[in-house]
Amino acid sequence: MAPGVWLCLILMPASPAAGGMPSLDTPCASGLLLAQEQPQPLSLDDAVARVQAALGGRVLAAETQYREDGRQVHRIRILTEDQRVRNILVDPMTGEWQ
User: Which residues form the signal peptide (predicted)?
Assistant: First the structure.
């Protein structure tokens, strides 16, 4: 169980007078649900592995950049098997690349 869940269970009274066990509409429990529903961004290492598996070749460079709007993008420079250098941009939230 995640540390945050334990904290919620410890801090919330579970006596019959307090209404028993916490329900999903309590602030703590609903906050945990929102945190669990949010997707984890794709790491730079995972993005590199996906692009290299799809294209083959050799990775020349990889870095995470921030766009003007504040969003992250993984930039991967790869030397393909046909000796072309390609710059691939991977969206860490969706995993889509171009």
Answer: 1-17
Closest CA to 94 of 35, 51, 42: 42
Task: Report the C-alpha gap between 95 and 91 in whole angstroms.
Answer: 5
pLDDT tens profile 4-55: 544 444 455 554 455 555 555 555 555 555 555 668 999 999 999 999 999 9
> Which of 60, 69, 71, 61 is closest to 96 using CA atoms?
71
**Nearest CA among 53, 47, 40, 52 for reference residue 74:** 47
> Would you say 52 and 59 are in contact if contact means Cβ atoms under 8 Å apart?
yes
Domain ranges of the chain: 3-37, 44-90
